[in-house]
Model the fold of this input.
Amino acid sequence: MVTSAAPRHAAPPVHAGPARMTATPPPIPTLLDSDVVRPAPPASRAIKAQVENFSFFYSTVQALADVSLPFRERAITALIGPSGCGKTTLLRCFNRMHDLYPGNRYVGRILLHPDNLNIVAREVDPISLRMRISMVFQKPNPFPKSIFENVAYGLRLRGIRSRSELEGRIQVALEDAALWGEVKDRLRKPAYDLSGGQQQRLCIARALANEPEVLLLDEPTSALDPIATSRIEDLIVELKERVTIAIVTHNMQQAARISDYTAFMYLGKLIEYGATAEVFQNPKCKETEDYVTGRFG
Done:
């Protein structure tokens, strides 16, 4: 009878050893557990502007759908959401930037208090409105003029011609923008000589010179380095004691650090609005939680 030969190098027997323990990775920290979120602001603050059942169309394309939310006095409201959700579109409605292009239309109301002015009504003059509602854009956009003339531009439009009054108001605006100490000896130099962070603070000074009631900020630090970003954030928090602020930001940490209220937008709709601490730490909507914890966006 033929028998098979045993292998020359038999595999060693397998002995069952103690089971290996697999360490559970620590949870990833999120803004839901963050201690950087600002505490809830007083609920008694008056409403400075009110968006009511508001929609906006780029010609036939609807960009905003039935949005309603308040903007409170002496507070910072952050508009957050993924790209294309309508944040900047809404912000630009406040000072009628969309009027520059034919075919765009507003449906609903944006009321500016205390005079209950519907700022998107046809009879409202956009130029006069922009004296009350100023805007600072994503990238610094100083005029090709001197530092002095950049800040003086809006004041001249308002008819201010007195040299002493211009100089006084320009100094105040530059001080309010935390820039006076850096530029007071070179006011006649071109604004383009300034660094990126200084240029953005110059744009804020230009916006503040007209003493607006509302300041709109469209991602004002996205093009800046961390040091300049920190200075701008500190400035924004200081400014809210004098002006109502609305800021668009993609930076969740920034929204948590500086805003009092947060509105989360998605696909042209308002998903959730509330005190920033509530929106980040106890969101009511699943979409909000997924966005602020980084699951999408």
